[in-house]
Automatic annotation (TrEMBL):
It is a multi-pass membrane protein. It is found in: Cell membrane. Keywords: Cell membrane, Membrane, Transmembrane, Transmembrane helix. Belongs to the DoxX family. The keyword Cell membrane applies. It comes from Coleofasciculus chthonoplastes PCC 7420. This is DoxX subfamily, putative. Pfam families: DoxX.
Length: 156
């Protein structure tokens, strides 16, 4: 299948847009986690309190709530840098699925709408991973490829 170049978008522009969107999402997630790291037990308790009138047992609220800030922090850090980007994005999207379940169970539709926007951004970044050229992942891959080329030229 031959791909025709798109007359409206240049690869360079998409790479820049992808990089900026990735960094913005990464910063957002990083700071969500970073601001909660100092009080993870308090954050978890606030989640337990929020879900007290639902059918979900307290341990099934508390356990994930203890992990949310840590996952947000790590995913945000990795996505911002573009390090193991695809795995970090998939992990972040998985977290959004869990969070979406919770907010819709609480019928908090405004937050659910906001979370759908996050999901859309995760979708765009995962689907557009081939544009992740300005990242540690891409740098590492270029370095690895260059090293392999040098190694193969030395053996011939």
């Amino acid at each position: 299948m031959h791909h025709q170049p798109n007359p409206w978008f240049r690869r360079r522009d998409i790479v820049i847009a992808y990089t900026l969107l990735r960094i913005v999402l990464g910063i957002n997630f990083f700071n969500h986690g970073f601001t909660r790291l100092g009080n993870i037990p308090g954050f978890a308790q606030s989640m337990v309190d929020l879900f007290q009138d639902t059918f979900i047992p307290e341990p099934l609220v508390r356990a994930p709530a203890l992990l949310v800030p840590i996952v947000e922090f790590i995913v945000g850090f990795l996505v911002t840098l573009g390090l193991v980007t695809q795995a970090a994005l998939v992990t972040g999207f998985g977290l959004m699925i869990v969070l979406m379940y919770g907010v819709t169970l609480l019928q908090n539709w405004d937050t659910a709408t906001s979370q759908l926007i996050y999901c859309l951004v995760f979708f765009i970044l995962i689907a557009g991973n081939s544009f992740n050229d300005i990242s540690i992942d891409a740098w590492w891959q270029r370095r690895k490829t260059r090293s392999q080329r040098l190694d193969s030229s030395e053996t011939h």
